[in-house]
Amino acid sequence: VQLQASGGGLVQPGGSLRLSCTASGFTLERYAIGWLRQAPGKEREHVATTSWNDGTTWYADSVKGRFTISRGNAENTVYLQMNSLKPEDTAVYYCAVYNSGYVYYTGSYTNWGQGTLVTVSS
User: Fold this and answer.
1) Phi-psi map region of 87: left, alpha, beta (phi>0 left; psi -120 to 50 alpha)
2) Which residue of 7, 22, 64, 108 has the fewest C-beta atoms within 10 A of its own C-beta?
């Protein structure tokens, strides 16, 4: 099982993008799904997670109030709406399945797919 992130691109500071996370042969609705990112020269970090059952969400402090994680269950997709983008949001974004442990720790996630590059620059 592998997840696939898409929707990245080049955007100016202050702009918006919506990323999508999909999976084939795998029902995302049954799992807690997270978005994580890796900026050039930096370690991977947690961005946002949505629970599988009650709509609970978790966000990194750096994206609170700007990013929103949501589900499109009919489409078997998890979205990340990113608004008010900053140059420091530039990174490869991944989606993955939350397995267990601290939700903000990247090691708690499995089934990482290929990422999508987001570049915030004027």
Assistant:
1) alpha
2) 64
